[in-house]
């Protein structure tokens, strides 16, 4: 097990493949919080999907766009369930086949259809550009949707003269029980989460919508623009957050594994390693890494160490530390600070890391102790 994410808490908003993503994060040391932002509602019994399927069989499309592997497989499986699977595949086989990414491409091939064209960028924009390169006037194009309408994509094709057949294989809807998502939202707003992962644009939009309903959207955005890192599997997923000025980590390859690797690089870079009293100290979400060893911290200890690490080498007054504890929901007097400092020193196992500056407060002695005069011995 690697430990790139040890000490960090990462939230997972995915519904599909949430367990896989959570396992990958945990293998790298992260503490994982699950809060599905959506659920997939299959439409195998939907009259609109059946109508579209019958229309494609009766009048085969000239081109077929597969946007997701699960969606295209779901379409074929639904047709099989209605007893018209072979007829559907026979109608699609002569068409120009396009797939947004390798999973959709694999699903098309697995259905026994010819290998479709797929853009290297795995983006809908490049796929659309490829379609628009040729004449489309009068052509019938079947577009498999992926949980939500694609109005811009469809409108561009229609403006070029195509007749677009939208294939609604499944759709996103709110989770049946939103308790886990509400808990995740509260933890992000309280900045108790270090990173939030998103694997679909609807998931990002759902979290923003829930925050608006609960009256805490600005708190959510403040967290995501600051200490809580947003991580999105691709630019399409990032779009709802980008519209609100939230930056995100996006891997070069739009895959779950690549997303985890990107987090493994990005999160530690947000936590500088400080040379303190002859030791290397790095503060992470709920732990400190001291000379490569993990030191678990209490909520109060984390709050104190974060306040000191924000101004390493400088004295932080007892009053300021008391206010920090109060903001984190703890006791707010200077005696409570003294007790919390004592517990923090014990947790770190190196009392000299938190120096007492008599009548002033506490500091992290940024310079190595052996080369610099002491301000005061730890009490």
Describe this structure as you would to a colleague.
By secondary structure, this protein is α/β, with parallel strands linked by helices. It is 42% helix and 18% strand. It contains 15 helices and 17 strands. It has helices at residues 18-27, 47-58, 69-81, 85-92, 102-110, 124-132, 151-159, 179-189, 201-213, 217-225, 235-242, 256-269, 299-309, 318-327, 334-348, and strands at residues 9-12, 31-34, 39-42, 63-66, 96-99, 140-144, 163-167, 170-173, 195-198, 229-232, 273-276, 279-283, 287-290, 293-296, 316-317, 355-357, 361-363. The chain has a four-stranded parallel sheet, with helices on both faces. A four-stranded parallel sheet has the order 5-4-6-7, with helices on both faces. Helix 9 (201-213) runs parallel beside helix 11. The longest helix is centred in the C-terminal third of the chain and has 15 residues, at 334-348. The two termini are 39 Å apart.
């Amino acid at each position: 097990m690697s430990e790139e994410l040890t000490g960090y808490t990462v939230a997972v908003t995915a519904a599909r493949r949430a367990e896989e993503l959570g396992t990958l994060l945990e293998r790298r040391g992260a503490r994982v919080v699950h809060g599905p932002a959506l659920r997939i509602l299959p439409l195998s019994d939907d009259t609109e999907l059946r109508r579209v399927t019958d229309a494609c069989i009766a009048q085969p499309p000239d081109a077929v766009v597969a946007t997701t592997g699960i969606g295209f497989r779901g379409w074929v499986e639904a047709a099989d369930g209605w007893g018209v699977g072979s007829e559907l595949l026979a109608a699609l086989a002569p068409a120009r086949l396009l797939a947004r990414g390798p999973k959709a491409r694999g699903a098309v091939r697995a259905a026994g259809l010819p290998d479709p064209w797929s853009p290297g960028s795995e983006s809908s924009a490049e796929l659309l550009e490829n379609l628009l390169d040729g004449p489309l006037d009068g052509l019938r194009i079947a577009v498999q949707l992926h949980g939500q309408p694609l109005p811009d994509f469809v409108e561009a094709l229609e403006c070029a003269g195509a007749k677009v057949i939208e294939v609604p294989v499944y759709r996103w809807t709110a989770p049946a029980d939103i308790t886990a998502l509400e808990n995740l939202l509260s933890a992000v707003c309280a900045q108790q989460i270090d990173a939030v992962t998103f694997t679909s644009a609807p998931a990002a939009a759902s979290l923003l919508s829930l925050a608006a309903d609960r009256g805490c959207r600005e708190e959510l955005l403040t967290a995501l623009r600051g200490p809580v890192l947003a991580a999105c599997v691709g630019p399409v997923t990032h779009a709802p957050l980008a519209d609100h000025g939230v930056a995100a980590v996006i891997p070069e390859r739009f895959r779950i594994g690549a997303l985890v690797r990107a987090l493994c690089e990005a999160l530690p870079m947000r936590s500088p390693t400080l040379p303190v009293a002859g030791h290397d100290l790095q503060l992470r979400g709920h732990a400190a890494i001291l000379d490569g060893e993990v030191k678990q911290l209490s909520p109060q200890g984390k709050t104190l160490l974060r306040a000191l690490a924000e101004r390493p080498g400088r004295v932080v007054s007892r009053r300021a530390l008391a206010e920090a504890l109060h903001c984190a929901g703890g006791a707010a007097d200077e005696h409570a600070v003294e007790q919390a400092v004592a517990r923090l020193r014990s947790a770190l196992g190196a009392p000299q890391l938190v120096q007492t500056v008599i009548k002033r407060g506490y500091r992290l002695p940024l310079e190595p102790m052996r080369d610099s005069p002491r301000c005061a011995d730890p009490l």
